[in-house]
Specification:
Elements: H1 2-18, H2 26-35, H3 42-62, H4 74-92
Helix pairs in contact: 1-2, 2-3, 3-4
């Protein structure tokens, strides 16, 4: 297991360096998984990362630690987070930003 983590960490660092970044980002880890032939793990790893971000944001909002001081409801924060995730996915998939259609509200349907 430690060997696997070392391999992913090393490749993530290489991806990060090629992009001339100083900090390894989640996108670098996902790209490393792809490059090393572990593409079947990408969806599950990304889902775990999204869940972590949601839990972290929820905890921050709950504790009143919103960094820019803006007042935002949990629903607005979750929507903004999903927008940011969609942009990150688009960047990972070649740069095309595809706007996510808002989910329909079943109570409004006839």
């Amino acid at each position: 297991m430690a060997e696997f983590i070392n391999l992913i960490s090393s490749e993530s660092n290489e991806v990060c360096n090629r992009e001339e970044k100083r900090t390894i980002a989640p996108e670098h880890v996902l790209k490393a998984l792809e490059v090393l032939g572990f593409g079947e793990y990408i969806e599950e790893v990304y889902a775990a990362y999204e869940q972590h971000k949601i839990e972290t944001m929820h905890d921050s909002l709950k504790g009143g630690k919103w960094s820019n001081g803006a007042e935002m409801t949990e629903e607005e924060a979750a929507a903004e987070q999903q927008r940011m995730f969609a942009e990150a996915r688009a960047r990972m998939n070649g740069g095309a930003v595809v706007p996510k259609q808002p989910e329909s509200d079943p109570s409004l349907e006839s």
